[in-house]
Amino acid sequence: MAKELTSKSENYSQWYNDLVVKADLAENSAVRGCMVIKPYGYAIWEKMQAQLDKMFKETGHVNAYFPLFIPKSFFSKEAAHVEGFAKECAVVTHYRLKNDEDGNGIVVDPDAKLEEELIVRPTSETIIWNTYKNWIQSWRDLPILCNQWANVVRWEMRTRLFLRTTEFLWQEGHTAHATKEEAIEETFKMVNVYADFAEKYMAMPVIKGHKSENERFAGALDTLSIEALMQDGKALQSGTSHFLGQNFAKAFDVQYANKEGKLEYVWASSWGVSTRLMGALIMAHSDDNGLVLPPKLAPFQVVVVPIYKKDEQLSQISEKAEAIIEKLRAKGISVKYDYSDAKKPGWKFAEYELKGVPVRLAIGPRDIENGTVEVARRDLLSKEVVQMEGIDEYIESLLDDIQNSIYNKAFDFRTEHTTEVDTWDEFKDVLNNKGGFISAHWDGSPETEQKIKDETKATIRCVPFDAKEEEGKCIYTGKPSNKRVLFALAY
RNA sequence: CGGGAUGUAGCUCAGUCAGGUAGAGUACGCGUCUGGGGGGCGUGGGGUCGGAAGUUCAAGUCUUCUCAUCCCGACCA
User: Fold this and answer.
1) Is residue A368 located within the same domain as residue A461?
2) Which domain holds residue A445?
3) CA at A458, C1' at B19: how many angstroms apart?
4) pLDDT tens per residue across span A469-480
5) Inside any domain, residue A295
6) How many C-beta atoms lie closer than 10 Å to residue A184's C-beta?
7) N or C: which end of chain A has fewer CB within 10 A?
């Protein structure tokens, strides 16, 4: 066994790290906290990007690109925003290197100090709103519905592949609207796009809701998020959509003339998902044998492995295999044919399992004789022998089955790990022994949330949109509450 | 920035206590038998022992300094 995974039950966090590295998704780089996304991992990200990009465009958005660097002065214009990000910013102070006079290699040229430092963007609200100021004069210029695909840098203390890296890839939508109602509508629209994407493509059920004040984005009036549950019972915030009110418009003095000719400040939203979704995808479905990918995001959905001894056997098998592959591709199914002699069939089986390829076909002399194919599905680790005739239709529906099946499995897991509690003792007991989402009453105050966090590390993941109205008492203070919120330990 | 640990082959690590020719597994090259679940046998290549200075006839091992990384905490999508 060349690539042994740590088992999930033994050490979940080690299992995750092993999986990311051994499935060739990403690795740590020479730069602290920054990862190299390897081709196989990047292929999954590209699939996510392509689908999200399509969904953004279908909802009327366009792509643009704004600078990596943000002048320091822009940053301080929105008070809450600078407060939230100041502690984790990379700063460019110089623009030139030179040879050290003492022969110690290359040093920063002290004469090349910038007049004003540049911040490597941790998010782009400030540079974008500074730009929007020039784009907006009249109600006729609104709305602006821009998205950008970019990298951002947040100088985190501790990093983990995909879940939290110093530099990460994401998309950030920044919209400008004439009215509050329209901006709020946009905020909700995009959290719904994220939820659709997570559920239909990632096969990952999510809860949509409002963030509590403590967890809100720096500079937002309201933050909506999608929250997913990982297999270790911890929650992962997978996407956020912010209603920014007029905060940035006021900070950057972005006003428009309304139909009556009166100047008004513009209303804003911003929303984003990042390569963190890769972490979510990995943790939502995978097992001790490796990655389990939903067919809709797998770099290739089917792998074909020929089993042969001699070259003439291979050409006989290839003839059948290629006919099958052609039919599958005609149905839009992506296929890899691995006829390489570099590895043995057994090795390939294990490797593609590790990489989460949804369906594996094995064709050997036995199959040629019987007109059959061995079909293995990754999610259930099951195998069956199927007639070659009609195999394309069989696989087409099998891929749908797999997509649904892994969604249902994750959904059942979440249902099983969502617990209503009514007392503080019960809360602590469920948190420590069962994990998952805990639905409980809360008095609505940031102080109470903070105390709960200090005592248990659990935070309010969200106030779900569909939280049922019911009278109850805060589990911590006993004060009255009219709806349940979701608590969990989170990534 | 506090607490703990580790730097030896591409990777994972032994060897350091007690100084004396640089090791294993895995990966890699070649040959061969194999091939329906990470194969067997044979053989070969691969190291400034993180860096610098010191002690010594002799340093991976002892001393001092230094650099880097990892884990736990505070921060966080």
Assistant:
1) no
2) 418-488
3) 54
4) 899 999 999 999
5) no
6) 18
7) N
Same domain assignment for residues A184 and A116: yes
Nucleotides of chain B in contact with protein CB (under 7 A) are 1, 26-27, 34-39, 68-77
Q: Is the CB of residue A310 inside 7 Å of nucleic acid strand B? A: yes
Whether residues A388 and A434 fall in one domain: no
Q: Is the CB of A468 under 7 A from strand B?
A: no
Å from the A352 CA to the B39 C1': 18
Q: What's the predicted TM-score (pTM) here?
A: 0.95
Side chain identity, residue A442: W
The model's pLDDT over A417-469, given as tens digits with 9 standing for 90+, comes to 999 999 999 999 999 889 999 999 999 999 999 899 888 889 999 999 999 88
Q: Is residue A410 situated within a structural domain? A: no
DSSP E strands, A211-266: 222-229, 235-245, 255-257, 263-265
Residues A98 and A157 in one domain: yes
Residue of A235, A241, A248, A247 lying closest to A223 (CA atoms): A241
User: pLDDT tens-digit profile of A71-119?
Assistant: 999 988 988 888 888 888 888 988 988 877 766 667 788 899 999 999 9
CA distance from start to end of chain A: 32
Q: Are residues A320 and A366 in the same domain?
A: yes
Strand locations in A29-157, DSSP E? Answer: 35-37, 62-63, 69-71, 91-94, 97-99, 106-108, 113-120, 144-153
Structural domain tally of chain A?
3
Measure A315 CA to B35 C1' (Å). 16
Residues A265 and A368 in one domain: no
Gap from A362 CA to B9 C1', Å: 37
Strand B contact at CB of residue A2, distance < 7 A: yes
Chosen domain end from A398, A432, A457: A398
Please list the helix, strand and coil fractions of chain A in percent, rounded to the nearest 5, in that order. 40, 30, 35
